[in-house]
Structures are given as structure tokens and as C-alpha cells.
Amino acid sequence: MLPSDFDLADFVTRVLAEDLGSGGDVTSSACIDESARFRAEMNCREPIAVAGIEIAEAFFRRLDADVGIESFVRDGHRVEAGAILMRLEGNARAMLTAERSALNTLQHLSGIATMARRFVDAIAGTGAVLLDTRKTIPGLRVLEKYAARMGGAHNHRMRLDDGVLIKDNHVAVNGGVAEAVRRAKAAEAGLQIQVEVDQIAQIEPALAAGAERLLLDNMTNDELREAVRLVDGRVPLEASGGVNLQTVRGIAETGVDFISVGRITQSAPAVDIGLDFALIP
What we know:
The protein is 41% helix and 19% strand. It is α/β, with parallel strands linked by helices and 281 residues long. The protein has helices at 8-20, 26-31, 53-63, 92-122, 141-150, 168-174, 177-186, 203-209, 221-231, 248-252, 263-266; strands spanning 37-44, 48-49, 68-71, 78-79, 84-91, 129-131, 164-166, 193-197, 213-217, 237-240, 258-260, 273-279. The chain has two domains: 8-120 and 268-279, Aldehyde Oxidoreductase, domain 3, CATH 3.90.1170; 154-260, TIM Barrel (Alpha-Beta Barrel). Strand 10 (237-240), helix 10 (248-252) and strand 11 form a beta-alpha-beta unit.
């Protein structure tokens, strides 16, 4: 199910307006008879985790209320190359006009879900939980974080107002982690206070000041293991920085509770999904 705070109708309106401009699909209008009808089959050309299928359907329905759609997958499903995702039958012009918006959205979101699933699979059995970050395309955060969930990741902060995260610049301005935490606690925001530390020596001052969670930034695996030993379960530990599919398993095996990966949303490539049309005689 799509996020409750996502306005599907508004999204479809804005995306179609961006693609149609003021003149509409002039090519289809010129080359395709107004009454022509198409059958179409959408399939994936590589193994993927699906995200955005309901949104793709909405683009076709917006331009042809009577379009017939049969979807064979739902968001969160994992499918192999060649799997049929959707079959459609309806007005040819409408289908061609909606095609790019539907595919762009489905390819992008499924790309995020697919990359998230690869990371989740890589750390399976370690007990570590994969997190996304706020490194999202402006305006698409709700959708991109939804796609990350469809791939098995957990959402961290959605916005700046739903968690206190003291990072290196906050620490620098305050002259140290202890003072930064003290000021955060004094603000009484009623939110968990997480502190980014990049040195083992910062851990005890942060905890003594009242940090409730630590973000271990760009630490080596040996440093991560030492941090796990020192903290000894007093607060959750999150590892971040230098995480890729080659390094994530080793990081998870240090004993950290969470691993955050910005590239899930920031750098996930679109997956290969095609839509093949056939004219109905």
C-alpha cells in the first residue's frame, strides 16, 4: 500500500503535465487513429524488486478511464528476468502518452527497491538492520523511502523534525560532543538524541552527556568492533560511511545494530522494464 501521506492523484497530474506541456502528445495524435486500440505487455528484463506498480497503473487510468489492466505483481515482490508485470488493453493514443511517465516512475522506484534488497540480502543473518538516509531527490523523498521499504530497508529520519542527529558540524560549533548533547537535551524536544562520532575517544563523552544512540561515521571494522565492545549494549549503534555491497557484510559482522546507506536512494540505477504494444485489429 502506498504511503498515507502520498497524494497519488496530485503526483500523476504533475508528472503528466511535465511531459505533455501545452500541446500534448503531438506525435501520437498525428500518427495514431483516435479510435485505435492497443494491447500491451510490460515485463522486466532483469531480476528486480518491484516498487511503484500501483502508480504506473494510475497513469494509464488517468488518460483512459476504461483501460483494462491486469497486474501480476505487487510492490515488494521479487521477480526474475522475463517476468510479466502487467497487461493492458485500451485506447492506443492514451497508452502511448502515459507510457513514459509510467515506466520512468516504475523503473526508478524499482531500482531503489532492487538495490535495497541486495544490501538486505548481503547482511542476512547478522542481526544488523539496513537503513536509508535523507539523501533523496528533492520532492521525491516519500516515494523513494517507500521504495526502500519495498526492498526490505527501514526508514530512518524522514525529515529534520523527527529526530535529533548531532553531526560533526554541530559538534565543531559547540566545541565537543558533550556540550552539543547538553544543549540538545536542554532544548527538550522530546526526541531521541543521536550523535555522530568518528573517533573512539568521543564515545564515552557522548554517552556521559546523555546520547541515546551513536552514529559511527567512517570507522574501520576494527574500530567498529571496539565501539561495540565499549558501548556494550548501552545504546544502539549505527555504522555509516564507506558502505557498499562489497563491504556491508563485514560491517554487519562487527556487531553494530544498524547500517545506513545513502546510495540506496541517491545512486540506485533504474531497472530495465519494457512495454511492448500490439494493435488490436
